[in-house]
Structure formats: C-alpha cells, structure tokens
Amino acid sequence: MRLTSLLLAGLLACAPRAPAQPLPELGDAAGAAIAPQVERRIGESIVREIRYRDPAYVDDAEVTAYLESLGRRLLSTIPDARHEFEFFAVRDPAINAFALPGGFVGVHTGLLVAAESESELASVLAHEIAHVTQRHIARLIGAQQQMQLPSMVALAAAILLGGSRPDLAAGAAAAAQGTMVQQQLSYTRDFEREADRIGFRTLQEAGFDVRAMPAFFEKMQRYSRLGDDGTVPSYLRTHPMTTERIADAQGRAASAPYRQSLDSLDFHLVRAKLRAESGEARDAVEAFAAAVRERRYANEAAARYGLVTARLRARQLQEARTDLAALRATGAASPMIETLAARVQQASGDAAGALAALGAALQRYPGRLPLIYAYAQALQQAGRHPEALATLSEPVRRQPQDARLRTLQAQTYAALGKRLLQHQAQAELYLLRGSVPAAIEQLQLARAAGDGNFYELSAVEARLKELRARHAQDERDAKR
Ligand SMILES: [Zn+2]
Question: How far is the CA of 214 from the centre of ligand 1 (A)?
C-alpha cells in the first residue's frame, strides 16, 4: 500500500494526471511567476522542515556529497543557471525525485537504488533541474498573486510533496484549498514536457548516455503499475502521459549520437551504502556476502564496500577488517573508502589510527566535506580542539550555510571555553534552522560573554543589528 500511495504522490509531483481543461500557453504563466527571492524563501522553509524535522531525511554527508557532485556536473552545462541548487536524499522506497522552489532537489533512496546506471539517475535529476530553471513551480504558485507567503509555502508543499511526505503535507494541504491545488496541477502537463525536453539536452551536454532517459522512464512506468497491494490506481490506468513521455524521449535518444558514459565509483558506493544500511544488519551482511561470493555485482569494490558497511553495523569487527583488506586489494580509490576504513578502526578501538588515516585521506582528497567532518570529529574526540578549529575555519568560510560545519565549530568553541564564539556559531545554526529570535538570543549571550576581542564584538553587534531588522520585517510580513 505504502509504495502505491507514494508512487501516486510522486506522479502528482512529476507526471500529473491528464487535465480535462485546455492548457494555458507556457508563456502566459511566465509573467505571473513569483519573485526569485520569494521562491527561494518558500523552498528554504519547506527544505528546513524536511532537513530538521522529517525522520526520512538522509542525514548522510557522503550521500549528499555524491548527489551534489552529480548535480554540479549537470549544472555546469547551464551557463545562466541563476538558482543556487542544493541536492539531498530522502529515505523513501518510491522511485521518485522532486524539485522545490528555489533550487532544492530531493532524491528518493528508491530512485538511487533502482537506477542501474548513473546516466539513469542523472536523467531524473536533469528533469528536476529543468523544473527549477524553467521556473515551473514559481509560475504555478505565482498564478495566485494575492497569496501570503505562508499560504504559498503550504501550496508548494501540497503540490510537490503530496502524500510522499504526508506528515509535512498534511498541514500544508489543509491550508491550501484542495480545489486550488487541482487547478494548479493542471499546468503541469506542459511543464513535464518542457522539463523532459530541456532535461534531455542537459543530460546530453553533460556527457551522459541519453538512452538512459527513455529506459528509465519505462522502468518507472513498469514499477508504477505494480502497487504492492496488487491494485492499480484508476488514474494511472488512464494516464496517457507516461507513454507519451517515453516515446518523446526515445525519439530524442534515437537521433542523438551514441555516447558511452562510465559510472563513477561513488555512484556504486553510495547505492551499496544505502542498501547496507537499510533493513536488518544481519540480512544486509548475508546479501552482500552472497553477492561477493557468487560474483553477482555490477561493481566488485562496491559489493565489498557494502559488505564491510553491513559488518560494521552488525558489529562483526574481525570480519569487517578482513573484508576491508579485500576491498583495498581491488585497488579502488575513493574518499568514501577512507572514511569507512576509519570507522572500522574507530569501532575496533584504534582511535589514533583512525585519526591519522583521516588526516592522510584529507591530504589526498582536500576539501571533501565528509572527510572534513569525520576528521574534525576525530580531532575533537582526541581532545585536539585547536586543530579541529583550524580544520573547520576555511570550510566554514567557504560554506557558511553548512549546518554540520557550524555544529562542529560550536562544539569546539564550547570545549575550548570560548563563549562569545560558541554563541556566535550557535546563532548561525539557529538561523539555518529558520529561527531568527533564537539566533538573536544567542548573539545577545555572545555579546554578554565578556571573552571576545574588539573585532569579535563588533562582528556580533553588526550581526545582531542585521537580525533584529530582519525579525522586525518578518513581524510586519506576518501581520500584513
Ligand atoms: Zn516533472
């Protein structure tokens, strides 16, 4: 049942039912699009709900880093991409992805696991990116110009998330009138067509195998017919879109020059990690052990990586070390293998060895966020807080929106007894979570801490002033 309803939700987001009324021209809706800043704010508030309150959010730095890198590869072909994109994963078996207003793209783990090639996964991402760059969502929401921001958030959440995040969408759907949602959805058939066409071009220009797009569309259609309670929802049966979309994609792929595209190692590692970390640990060990034994795998290193990950979960440390050696023997190289090796060492009680290994890995793969997190954390645990701070400073400067970096930084300041800096970092964390009043409170604590120098105090003052102004503006917006 769950799979069916989730698939339906996905289809609402990405392959909506055929509308009865005539479709408006895409150009007509463009004029009504909401402003990009408003769009970003809507997306931010939805993504905050997912990131900090939805247990299905995949809080895994390596999975996120992989999706980010795949997304960047596609985006590098779009010279005027004005949106700042962010990619993340949601634990959900339905084969789906969704784009939120403002450039946030969510990918279901079901999609990651079902994609048999990186090009297949990329074809769905390219489609979602096109929804954003073509400002489809902005235009959907913009058709209701008089709407207040909270209602726009609710409407966007109801349209885009539907049943796939029911806890989030429930309040949203209640807030947005059902009829209005239906009306809005009627735009999306043309939007789907446009997202497919532009997504195809992106896929091609980024050097992926374009035949993956029709192949994956077919796969999605096959899966969507198989609800696990055996019933097929009526509007799927009468759904003409998917067949048309497949035919269009096939036509485009047939006229494109053949191009082979090799999957990255991390594509296979991420999928193995997700599989190794779902279900019962012992079942995961069995599945990967059998795959390795019988050589049933698309990628040997990934199968061995999955086995080590599963053994770590099952606390089979001796075997994990042996299998890690076998993984190393394949010659495969990835920062993901380095963090896994460090985790095995940590679990085996060799904290010093893990710390040294992470330090060396960071030399080899500089700037890789998952390694930076793991290394800073290991330094903290070893009580080497000044080094942890030094490791974090440049990444925080480069990526001030990264909550994990900010958390590590705040923890390190706390351990060092630097109270002004700790509250200042904490303020930025609250801000990322959408709470301006809590951020202001932290900045007041920072100001009163009494252990900062002139420059630090000035920075706190300036930020406090800025946030108070923002808070006052928010209050006025809410009353309007
Ligand atoms: Zn779509």
Answer: 14
Highest mean pLDDT among 5-19, 204-218, 376-390: 376-390
Mean pLDDT to the nearest integer, 280-290: 98
Distance from Cα 304 to the centre of ligand 1, integer Å:
35
- Ligand 1 mean position to 17 CA, how many Å? 12
Residue-wise pLDDT for 181-217, tens only, equals 444 444 467 888 898 999 999 999 999 999 999 998 8
Between the CA of 86 and the centroid of ligand 1 the distance, in Å, is 17
Task: Find the 238 Cα to ligand 1 centroid distance in Å.
Answer: 18
Bridge partners (DSSP) listed for residue 107:
89, 97
Instruction: State how far Cα 381 lies from the chain centre.
Output: 28
CA distance 151 to 149: 5
CA of 198 from ligand 1 middle (Å) equals 11
More confident residue, 429 or 27: 429
Closest to 88 measured CA to CA, from 103, 74, 72, 106: 106
254 touches 126 (CB < 8 A): no
Q: pLDDT (tens digit, 9 = 90+) per residue, 20-43?
A: 333 333 444 444 677 888 888 888
Tell me which H or E stretch contains 108.
Answer: strand 104-108
Name the DSSP class of 145.
Answer: T
Query: ∠ CA 123-127-128 to the nearest 5 degrees?
Result: 120
Per-residue confidence (pLDDT) for residue 347, from 0 to 100: 97
For residue 197, the CA-to-ligand 1 centroid distance in Å is 11
Q: How far is the CA of 196 from the centre of ligand 1 (A)?
A: 8
**How far, in Å, CA of 41 to CA of 288, rounded?**
43
| Spacing, Cα 192 to ligand 1 middle (Å) | 5
